[in-house]
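fyi for ur records
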Amino acid sequence: MSSSLNKIKWLILVPTLMEYEFVNDRISSAEVVVEICGFGPIIPAAKAMELIAQHQPANVALVGIAGAYATGISIGTAVIGSEVACFGIGAGSGRDYQTAGEMGWMQWGGRGEQDVIGDVLPLANFDRPRCQVLTVCAAANTRSDVDARQRRFPDAAIEEMEGFSVAAAAKMCGVPFYLVRGISNRAGDRDKCNWKIREALDAATSLMMDCLER
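which gave:
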């Protein structure tokens, strides 16, 4: 456990062992801890809360791979999200799907307006260009999946599966949260022959290292 004598400036979370081995091998600092938070939109929230309580970091970041919606984002590059939205919580499916916000529900009501968590959470991002990240319960499998998500969130540039839950955990703990994603594929393309996982992780890690120097 960290102490006041060894203050952790950054807690960097990654979803999987594969991502952990890549990121941890390239980032070495007494002020940085890299940990696995788990895969998907549920487990990472619980694990992030545990790890934030354990390490008491000044900042939290999530680093990993993602699929791109926006054609202007190239495979093998990386982005920092400016906000993260949630797709899958609500009611219905297909064209009948409604987000929690569209139903009039908040995902967390809190004790005051600053504590409310709806369908979209703002992120810390060093004043970089706007990039909305969409957290989904299952990765897009077809073009029709992509279209359904973009109907609800037309500004979403990429999709991934952990960002919203970790952002919510960081918000509840009062810690700035950064979301860094390397683009491994086009959302909806499940043919791994077209993916560039290593290039995406390399780009995401390099971008994260730039953040550490600020």
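Residues 145 and 191 are 15 Å apart (CA to CA). thats all i got for now
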